[in-house]
Structures are given as C-alpha cells and as structure tokens.
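Lab notebook page, bench 4
Experiment: in silico fold of construct C2
Operator: M.H.
Input chain length: 117 residues
Purpose: comparison with the prior construct
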Amino acid sequence: MSTARVPTHIIVSALLRRVNDAGGMAVVLARGDGDAGGVLMLVSERGQDVRALERGIDAAGRDALIVTAVVGDSAAADPRAITDYWQRRRARDPDLWVVELDIVQAERFAAQILSLD
C-alpha cells in the first residue's frame, strides 16, 4: 500500500502560516525541491539558543524531530556558526529547504505541522 506524501512546499507554507499567526517569526532562508525536499528548521526564542532540527528517526524507530546543531545562548557564541552549518548542508543537498522559526515552543509547531506529535 502506497502512502501519498504531502509536497514539501505545502508543509513549509503551513509552518510559516502557523508560526506567523501565533505571533512568531518564520521565514524561508533557502528553497529546495517543492515536492520532495527535506526541511531544516533553525529554531529559537527571541534569537536565543538557536537549534537546527530535522525530521528523522528516533532510537525506537519512530519519526521524530532530531537536533542536528546547537548554538548556545551565551554572548560568546559565534553568530555565524548556525549560518555556516546550514550553508554547508545546503551545498551538499540543494533540494533542502531551510526555514527559520523564532517563537516560543518552536519544536511544538514543527512537530504539529510535520505530524510528529
């Protein structure tokens, strides 16, 4: 039995709309393949504690949001580190979408849209 996959551009659009409607900020930093590209989410709250999240598989074999990079909230953290990270990922995978979310409980919004919760 085949399961229809929702095109990535619709997932990204829904994520942007939900976050912006909730008073947060969501923008696309890089567009990938509209139908089947992966989504790398850079999440923070008021620009602090930036994390990169992607859909992945957890230890139990279930779909989950996986933290793939973290830039701490200290003033000493290199502000270019997360940009360098996503640009390296994008260079290896031009189909990858990169979306920045700045909202309280960004992981919750991402999990709801990606149907992981």
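Observations: The mean pLDDT is 84. Strands lie at 25-30, 39-45, 48-57, 63-71, 97-102.
Next step: discuss at group meeting.
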